[in-house]
From TrEMBL:
Keyword terms: Membrane, Signal, Transmembrane, Transmembrane helix
TM regions (residue ranges): 92-111
Cross-referenced InterPro entries: DUF285, Liste_lipo_26, Secre_tail
Alphabetical list of Pfam families matching this protein: DUF285 (PF03382), Por_Secre_tail (PF18962)
Protein's UniProt keywords contain Transmembrane: yes
Stretches assigned to the Secretion system C-terminal sorting domain: 525-589
Domain of life: Bacteria
Protein name: Secretion system C-terminal sorting domain-containing protein
Length: 589
């Protein structure tokens, strides 16, 4: 059924770059009640322009498909082009009748805006000169031509393709060296709709070397998610100066994952990502990519996992990104060895996982003290081998962190030397086996390591460990003060395994002054002693004697007043006597 509507009023506007036509017309009928009907709208003033409206039923939705048929004169002939329009549809009630206003804006060009890619078939042995094209849609058109030999071309129509791949056979190349032949493949909607490109055809261990270039995104309205869209395309680069229309999708995860040749261009900065919720692995292992994408709209993105992991060249300012919806930041910059841009303005109030986020990000050294970490449950390996990082993060809220490796954070962070003794560690969700803290070969000074040991030993939630064993990996670290020695000993007595650290009496700290004052409150004489020492106690209490390694030597009960302690049987060395009110360093000659 065809219904014709003719209109005589068309406003024409011109600009330097393209010719625009705009028309507003009222149709006093409910199009949705006449589905599967074709409306042909002829514009009287421009007889060579016809707007065709196809109304289709898709599930429970009324879908309008707009096709603009344009005839424009070239020397000696008319050329027919079909254009898909995006119209803003407004519904208003007027005189109890439904009035649909179509406001449209379109432009005429001398070539349809197809999706254009360039391919180099992998011709080996008896393999045909062909590719598998992972396009998705119905009744769409594929045309191709050999680059440099446009007379060698072909065209095919795809009736329906939603789960398989279309084989495009290029026949015999005209190139003097057929193995070097490349082919330009153009896809248009034709009489139907092309809306997706599946990358799963290329997901294999050897990769897909055949797709070389995306040279134009065209007017395609992408309806299929771009998950793994171009993943493992080893030779792919994007040279398109236009941008993809992503308005109907929300997932670009691994879109360019394992694309080591991807460089891109300035057009990436113009991408509209306002609908995207998942950017997981988008540029993972895109080793050459370093385009300015700092103005991307990331307000809806929840998953930033692996986004730039192993993107070894990437170093762009993305401080303006809206990360308020982000929950998963696992490995976002892992192995991004060049990245060193400010991120302190990011809203991380919903972040739950920072595992491996800056692991081996060897250049990164930016403040992060403004980050809200109140919901984070995992910091495992966050700064492992981040050899430049040394920023104050002692104000972070770590109260939600749990699991075995939640604090395995600083192994190999060779410059990290900050005071984290104020962290509110609460040992939530403790596993039944181990709880790890990682400082192996970090830059933590004896002063800050002393503070950490003391704070941890005084943590009131240590009882939450239950049967779990606490492990502190501390290779290369030293402790020095009597209070740190005592704290370490207490942790060992509570079941901690502390590996790799060492006592260093020559390490001085400001904390030592405070400890000296505290020692003065617990009189002990003679000190040094050759055997018996007298200790004054302010109350009846249990006290513990430790050697310099933190090993518990004996425990005893002191009475209020003077108490004699015989150390004759113990070897010469330094000892600590500690109770609730008693604290003193004893030197045995």
């Amino acid at each position: 059924m065809i219904i014709n509507h003719r209109f005589s009023q068309v406003n024409v506007q011109k600009s330097a770059s393209f010719e625009k036509f705009a028309s507003v017309f009222l149709l006093e009928r409910n199009f949705c009640n006449q589905r599967n009907t074709i409306y042909e709208i002829y514009i009287k003033k421009f007889k060579n322009i016809r707007l065709i409206i196809l109304i289709r039923q898709v599930l429970s939705l009324c879908v309008y498909i707009f096709v603009l048929e344009i005839r424009y004169r070239t020397p000696g002939s008319y050329v027919l082009q079909n254009q898909f329009l995006t119209l803003n549809i407004f519904k208003i009630m007027f005189k109890k009748q439904l009035v649909i206003i179509f406001l449209f804006l379109f432009f005429i060009s001398y070539a349809q805006n197809e999706f254009i890619t360039v391919w180099k078939p992998n011709i080996t042995g008896t393999i045909d000169n062909a590719i598998s094209f992972g396009g998705t849609g119905t009744n769409y058109t594929i045309s191709w031509e050999e680059v440099g030999y446009p007379q060698h071309n072909g065209i095919l129509s795809v009736t329906s393709n939603t789960s398989t791949f279309t084989t495009i056979s290029f026949g015999t190349s005209l190139h003097t060296n057929p193995i070097q032949a490349t082919y330009k493949v153009k896809v248009s909607n034709g009489n139907g709709l092309f809306y997706g490109f599946k990358g799963s055809a290329y997901m294999n261990t050897t990769g897909n070397p055949e797709l070389f270039e995306v040279s134009q995104w065209g007017d395609i309205l992408w309806l299929q998610q771009f998950t793994q869209g171009f993943a493992y395309c080893q030779n792919l680069n994007v040279t398109a100066t236009d941008t993809p229309n992503l308005s109907q999708i929300n997932n670009v995860s691994q879109m360019f994952s394992n694309c080591p040749s991807l460089i891109g261009n300035d057009s990436f900065s113009n991408w509209n990502t306002s609908t995207i919720t998942n950017m997981n692995g988008m540029f993972n292992k895109a080793k050459l990519f370093n385009q300015n994408i700092g103005n991307w709209n990331t307000a809806k993105v929840t998953d930033f996992r692996d986004m730039f992991s192993s993107a070894s060249a990437f170093n762009q300012n993305i401080s303006a990104w809206n990360t308020s919806s982000g929950t998963n930041f696992i490995s976002m910059f892992q192995d991004a060895v060049a990245f060193n841009q400010p991120l302190n303005s990011w809203n991380t109030s919903n972040a739950t996982n920072f595992r491996y986020m800056f692991s081996n990000a060897k250049s990164f050294n930016q403040p992060l003290n403004n980050w809200n970490t109140s919901k984070v449950v995992n910091f495992d390996q966050m700064f492992t081998d981040a050899s430049s990082f040394n920023q104050p993060i002692g104000n972070w809220d770590v109260s939600k962190v749990g699991g075995a490796y939640g604090f395995m954070m600083f192994n190999g962070a060779t410059l990290f030397n900050q005071d984290i003794s104020a962290w509110n560690i609460s040992f939530q969700n403790v596993p039944s086996a181990y709880v790890y803290f990682g400082f192996n070969n970090s830059g933590l000074s004896c002063i800050n390591y002393n503070k950490f040991l003391i704070a941890l030993s005084n943590n009131p939630t240590l009882s939450n460990l239950g049967s779990a064993i606490g492990v502190i990996e501390a290779a290369g670290l030293t402790y020095s003060t009597p209070q740190a020695i005592m704290a370490r000993a207490q942790l060992v007595n509570k079941g901690f395994n502390i590996n790799g650290d060492a006592y260093n009496a020559s390490c001085n700290s400001t904390l030592a002054t405070a400890e000296t004052v505290k020692q003065a409150k617990t009189p002990a004489y003679p000190n040094p002693t050759t055997g018996v020492i007298t200790v004054e106690s302010a109350a009846n209490e249990n006290v513990y004697l430790y050697d310099i390694t933190g090993k518990l030597i004996k425990n005893m009960t002191l009475s209020k007043g003077s108490n004699r302690i015989d150390l004759t049987e113990y070897p010469s060395g330094n000892y600590l006597l500690k109770g609730n009110t008693v604290f003193t360093k004893i030197v045995k000659k």
